[in-house]
Design goal:
The complex is a heterodimer of chains A (114) and B (113). Chain A is mainly beta and 114 residues long. Chain A is built from no helices and twelve strands. In chain B, a hairpin with an 8-residue loop joins strand 9 and strand 10. The chains are: A mainly beta (114), B mainly beta (113).
Chain lengths: 114, 113
Amino acid sequence: AQTVTQSQPEMSVQEAETVTLSCTYDTSESDYYLFWYKQPPSRQMILVIRQEAYKQQNATENRFSVNFQKAAKSFSLKISDSQLGDAAMYFCAQTQGGSEKLVFGKGTKLTVNP
Amino acid sequence: DVKVTQSSRYLVKRTGEKVFLECVQDMDHENMFWYRQDPGLGLRLIYFSYDVKMKEKGDIPEGYSVSREKKERFSLILESASTNQTSMYLCASSHPGSPYEQYFGPGTRLTVT
C-alpha cells in the first residue's frame, strides 16, 4: 500500500521567518501528483500547492514553494515570510495508483509565533 | 469557485442511533469522497463514489454505508452509531482525471454519547 509520511507532528516558526515541512512518500508509479493542503483551525481544508511528478521544476505559489526530489521520494513545503495566518495543520497527499483517490499523511501542526 | 457544503458543523447523537451526514457540491463533479479525520491519524478514506449510484470502499468502511442518488449529493450513513465513531467527518469532491485535486467541505464534528 502506498504511504505518505510526515515526520514532524508539530513545528513552530517566528513570524517573517522561513519554515520547511517534510514529507516522504512511497510509490511504484512513474507518473503521479503530490499536494500540500492547509487546514486552519475550525476552517475548511484548502489546496496550497500541487506538483506533477513528471515536471522537474519545483512548483511555487507566492510564499509557498516545494522541494521535489523524485529519486528520494521527498516533497517538502517551504513557507517564506511566515504570517500568523499560516498557522494550521498541513497535510501532504499523493495520488494513489492511477486512481482518483488520494493518500494523506498524518499532518504537521504549524504554529506561528508573533 | 467550487463549493462543497455539509449539512451540519456539529452533531451529537446517542449510541445505536442511525445517523445521516449529507454533502452537496455545486461544480458537477463526478467524484465524491467521505473521510474521517482523527488526531494523529490524518485523513482516512471511508467511501468513494465515482458516479451516481456507484461506490467503492475506502480504507475504513466498517460501520458505514453511503448513498448517491444524485450527482451533487453524497450521504454517509452510520447504521448504528457507536462511541468509536466520534470524529470529524470531511466530504470532498473532484473532477475525474488530472490534476486530481479534491475540494473539501467544512467538516462535521460528530460526537456519539
